């Protein structure tokens, strides 16, 4: 096939409206999943007051969602393949909407916690099904680049949108609308999903890997819970150490089971492939650094600069817009034209540079918004936008059958683990550094100690991103074909392009 024929074929495929309905529906679902990781954070104080939650139990409004989502993702990927990705997608959307309505109408803390856990259950089905649909629908390089660019932009902006929406809804409506707002979005996505072509379920030829399912769910849940508990209790807490040890043992047992079972829940070839491993490592370490970064942006703008929650959330719009530009106008347009490493490594370095700017902050810094926040938020947003599309594409490239759902689930699990670890790890670094500064600087103000803690944690985030860039370069900088590159004439006969 000549280059002209290939371009004509791709243009003809682009004209199919169902492809873009798929992108619209999957992007809306991605917004729901990411947004709900942050929108409830802003509403939590109001919800606590309205429902009479104790200080000790209020964390479960956040933790219940994170545990169910992170713990069940691998199972969700397998179920998605067995049901058919479109059917699983619709079931996930409907369930997420129902759970959101239940949470919004909660009359007591137990109902809210249960609803948040149900949201996590259906999100664990929804997220891998959506990414799998996108992978199967967009196969040509240019269209795939645009689709993954939009998908990544929505995901990158979702956390910031959640903070803004949470502040606005809580302040001008009610905390309950932070949950009710999911219902119309989910129903619109269901409507869009009716235009998505049906995908034949993958036949595994065997029973569900029940031991693997139990071990993965309990192992991931233990690790995520340990990360959440490390933030208030510290990493040396016996409870945290016991959870981490338990999670490590369970996940080690999960690996042993997966190596022996004929129909594994997560085929380990997905993880050990060099290029895919580079994508998983890059996205995990990026989320470790970025979620700590978002946490400190919220703390610093509200405690040091005196911003309201709404103003703090609106500040992050700079980051969301930059991510949109990076994902759609840089990564989306260059997908298939350059190797993934040419997007991933510069993206990680841009995010690292953004964090480095904020390490220069001092309690008496002037013109903070324009000299520090805007450049930092812009660089981190551009970096995030450049890394997400190629890593999402690499994670699922060349997959068939159940492997598509498993790879999609593993990619989402990498993000969840990175986010949970980053929040706990960098918050611990900040707290320890602030306490040490206050003890060694007699007469230091609380604001000075806090800013020192933030900058110390951001130095760690900067180092993590540099390490991620080095690892990505080592794993992705190889010659040969990469997913999405326009194949040569001799390569058109291959059913699936090999990874680098």
TrEMBL record:
<keyword id="KW-0813">Transport</keyword>
<feature type="transmembrane region" description="Helical">
    <location>
        <begin position="278"/>
        <end position="300"/>
    </location>
</feature>
<dbReference type="InterPro" id="IPR036259">
    <property type="entry name" value="MFS_trans_sf"/>
</dbReference>
<feature type="transmembrane region" description="Helical">
    <location>
        <begin position="20"/>
        <end position="44"/>
    </location>
</feature>
<feature type="transmembrane region" description="Helical">
    <location>
        <begin position="208"/>
        <end position="227"/>
    </location>
</feature>
<dbReference type="InterPro" id="IPR011701">
    <property type="entry name" value="MFS"/>
</dbReference>
<feature type="domain" description="Major facilitator superfamily (MFS) profile">
    <location>
        <begin position="22"/>
        <end position="481"/>
    </location>
</feature>
<keyword id="KW-0472">Membrane</keyword>
<feature type="transmembrane region" description="Helical">
    <location>
        <begin position="312"/>
        <end position="331"/>
    </location>
</feature>
<keyword id="KW-0812">Transmembrane</keyword>
<keyword id="KW-1003">Cell membrane</keyword>
<feature type="transmembrane region" description="Helical">
    <location>
        <begin position="239"/>
        <end position="257"/>
    </location>
</feature>
<feature type="transmembrane region" description="Helical">
    <location>
        <begin position="88"/>
        <end position="107"/>
    </location>
</feature>
<feature type="transmembrane region" description="Helical">
    <location>
        <begin position="56"/>
        <end position="76"/>
    </location>
</feature>
<feature type="transmembrane region" description="Helical">
    <location>
        <begin position="113"/>
        <end position="136"/>
    </location>
</feature>
<keyword id="KW-1133">Transmembrane helix</keyword>
<keyword id="KW-0046">Antibiotic resistance</keyword>
<feature type="transmembrane region" description="Helical">
    <location>
        <begin position="370"/>
        <end position="396"/>
    </location>
</feature>
<feature type="transmembrane region" description="Helical">
    <location>
        <begin position="451"/>
        <end position="476"/>
    </location>
</feature>
<dbReference type="Pfam" id="PF07690">
    <property type="entry name" value="MFS_1"/>
</dbReference>
<feature type="transmembrane region" description="Helical">
    <location>
        <begin position="148"/>
        <end position="168"/>
    </location>
</feature>
<dbReference type="InterPro" id="IPR020846">
    <property type="entry name" value="MFS_dom"/>
</dbReference>
<feature type="transmembrane region" description="Helical">
    <location>
        <begin position="174"/>
        <end position="196"/>
    </location>
</feature>
<protein>
    <submittedName>
        <fullName>MFS transporter</fullName>
    </submittedName>
</protein>
<feature type="transmembrane region" description="Helical">
    <location>
        <begin position="338"/>
        <end position="358"/>
    </location>
</feature>
<feature type="transmembrane region" description="Helical">
    <location>
        <begin position="417"/>
        <end position="439"/>
    </location>
</feature>
């Amino acid at each position: 096939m000549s280059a002209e024929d290939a371009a004509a074929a791709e243009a003809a495929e682009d004209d199919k409206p169902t492809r873009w309905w798929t992108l619209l529906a999957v992007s809306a679902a991605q917004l729901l999943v990411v947004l709900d990781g942050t929108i409830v954070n802003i509403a939590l104080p109001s919800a606590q007051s309205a429902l009479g939650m104790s200080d000790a139990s209020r964390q479960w409004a956040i933790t219940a969602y994170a545990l169910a989502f992170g713990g069940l993702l691998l199972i969700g990927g397998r179920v998605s393949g067995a049901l058919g990705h479109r059917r699983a997608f619709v079931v996930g959307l409907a369930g997420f909407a129902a759970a959101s309505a239940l949470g919004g109408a909660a009359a007591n803390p137990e109902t809210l916690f249960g609803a948040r856990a149900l949201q996590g259950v259906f999100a664990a089905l929804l997220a891998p099904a959506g990414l799998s649909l996108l992978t199967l629908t967009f196969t040509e390089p240019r269209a795939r680049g645009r689709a993954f660019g939009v998908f990544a932009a929505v995901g990158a902006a979702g956390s910031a949108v959640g903070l803004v929406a949470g502040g606005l809804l809580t302040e001008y409506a009610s905390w309950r609308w932070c949950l009710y707002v999911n219902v119309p979005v989910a129903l619109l996505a269901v409507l869009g999903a009716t235009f998505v072509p049906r995908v034949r379920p993958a036949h595994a030829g065997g029973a569900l890997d029940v031991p693997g399912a139990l071990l993965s769910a309990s192992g991931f849940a233990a690790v995520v819970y340990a990360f959440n508990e490390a933030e208030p209790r510290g990493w040396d807490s016996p409870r945290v150490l016991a959870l981490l040890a338990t999670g490590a043992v369970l996940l080690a047992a999960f690996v042993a089971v997966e190596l022996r079972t004929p129909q594994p829940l997560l085929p380990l070839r997905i993880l050990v492939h060099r290029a895919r491993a580079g994508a998983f490592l890059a996205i995990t370490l990026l989320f470790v650094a970025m979620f700590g970064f978002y946490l400190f942006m919220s703390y610093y703008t509200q405690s040091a600069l005196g911003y309201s929650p709404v103003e703090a959330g609106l500040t992050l719009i700079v980051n969301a817009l930059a991510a949109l530009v990076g994902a759609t106008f840089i990564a989306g347009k260059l997908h298939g034209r350059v190797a993934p490493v040419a997007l991933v490594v510069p993206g990680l370095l841009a995010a690292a540079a953004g964090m480095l700017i904020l390490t220069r902050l001092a309690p008496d810094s002037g013109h903070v918004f324009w000299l520090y926040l805007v450049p930092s938020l812009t660089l981190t947003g551009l970096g995030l936008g450049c890394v997400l599309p190629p890593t999402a594409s690499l994670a699922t490239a060349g997959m068939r059958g159940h492997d598509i759902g498993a790879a999609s689930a593993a990619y989402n699990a990498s993000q969840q683990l990175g986010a949970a670890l980053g929040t706990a790890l960098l918050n611990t670094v900040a707290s320890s550094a602030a306490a040490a500064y206050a003890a060694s600087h007699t007469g230091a103000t609380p604001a000075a100690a806090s800013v020192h803690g933030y900058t110390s944690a951001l130095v760690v985030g900067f180092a993590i991103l540099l390490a991620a860039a080095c690892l990505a370069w080592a794993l992705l900088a190889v010659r040969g074909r990469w997913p999405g590159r326009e194949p040569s004439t001799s390569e058109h006969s291959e059913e699936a392009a090999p990874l680098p």
